[in-house]
Design brief:
The chain has a 5-stranded antiparallel β-sheet with strand order 1-2-3-5-4, covered by helices on one side. Strands 6-8-9 form a 3-stranded antiparallel β-sheet, covered by helices on one side. Helices cover about 50% and strands about 15% of the residues. A hairpin with a 4-residue loop joins strand 4 and strand 5. The chain has 2 domains: about 80 residues, Phosphorylase Kinase, domain 1 (2-Layer Sandwich), CATH 3.30.200.20; about 170 residues, Aminoglycoside 3'-phosphotransferase, Chain: A, domain 2. It is built from 8 helices and 10 strands. Pfam families: APH. It comes from Aliidiomarina haloalkalitolerans. This is Aminoglycoside phosphotransferase domain-containing protein.
């Protein structure tokens, strides 16, 4: 994905900007830009339908969370193109904490604060979102799509528990790299956030950060000290399996979309070469 240069005209300061890619997948691309004095983060969301999102919802969510002070300030946003420009954070991230037990404690405290948020956003269904993954995957890789849908059917009880169980605001991608704990708590990368089951969100955090048993024990103990909905270690095992399944489907979809886009680029290049040959 090419850098969205049109956003530069909307920045509060101007100059010659250098762009540095810092993240790329089919769901979004991210750049750090700097002009020697100022730095910003530029993000562009894409393939919303394939990833079960409503166009513009993520942009609106970024702004709502920035207003609550837990996410970076939004400098510019365009819902139609999926482009947002945010402040560049320079604090310490939880991933920089050397002691894994302290990291687990900080992650649990951040998770608690997320679960205590009240955000006015459109609710979404985990089952419907994962079915969107499966549908998009089946269009590109029919065998894999059907297999993914079949695998999901064996977790029908957990999908139902997600829909009808306790509801809190969840991040769903709480990597230690996404949590700035100094000088104040700020969290980035909210594109999968929304109201959901707290145990699913905790399981997501455990899987994303690859926590070991003693770290999981510390996380759950810290979380349960102030949580409205207690997390049971035994019950968490099934949620972790569901998270692992959804992550696998997501990565398969990402791989299939990348292959399809690469094929389109190759066909376009071949057509251009053919046109040049004919003209010559």
């Amino acid at each position: 994905m090419a850098f969205p240069t049109s956003c530069l005209a909307h920045l509060p300061v101007h100059g010659v900007w250098k762009t540095h890619p810092i993240g790329h997948d089919l769901a979004n691309c991210t750049w750090r830009i700097e002009n020697g004095e100022h730095q910003y983060i530029v993000k562009q969301y894409s393939h919303d339908a394939a990833f079960g999102r409503q166009t513009g919802d993520t942009i609106q969510l970024d702004a709502l969370l920035a207003e609550q002070g837990i996410a970076p300030a939004v400098v510019y946003a365009d819902e139609m193109t999926g482009v947002t420009v945010q402040e560049f954070l320079t604090g310490d991230v939880v991933a920089s904490i050397f002691d894994p037990i302290q990291r687990a404690e900080q992650l649990a405290e951040a998770q608690l604060q997320v679960h205590q948020l009240g955000v006015d956003v459109r609710p979404w269904s985990l089952s419907e979102r994962v079915q969107a993954y499966c549908n998009a995957l089946e269009e590109l890789k029919p065998g894999r799509g059907r297999e993914a849908r079949s695998d999901c059917e064996s977790y029908a009880n957990l999908f139902s528990a997600w829909e009808h169980g306790p509801r809190v605001f969840c991040h769903h991608d709480l990597s230690a790299e996404h949590v700035f704990f100094r000088p104040e708590l700020k969290i980035i990368d909210w594109e999968y956030a929304g109201y959901g089951h707290p145990a699913f969100d905790v399981a997501s955090t455990i899987v994303i950060n690859d926590l070991y048993d003693d770290e999981i024990d510390t996380f759950i103990e810290t979380y349960n000290q102030s949580a409205k909905h207690m997390i049971d270690r035994e019950g968490l095992r099934d949620w972790i399996r569901l998270v692992a399944l959804i992550n696998r489907i997501w990565f398969q979809l990402q791989e299939a979309l990348e292959a399809a886009e690469a094929e389109k680029r190759e066909q376009k290049a071949t057509a251009a070469d053919s046109e040049q040959t004919t003209t010559a």
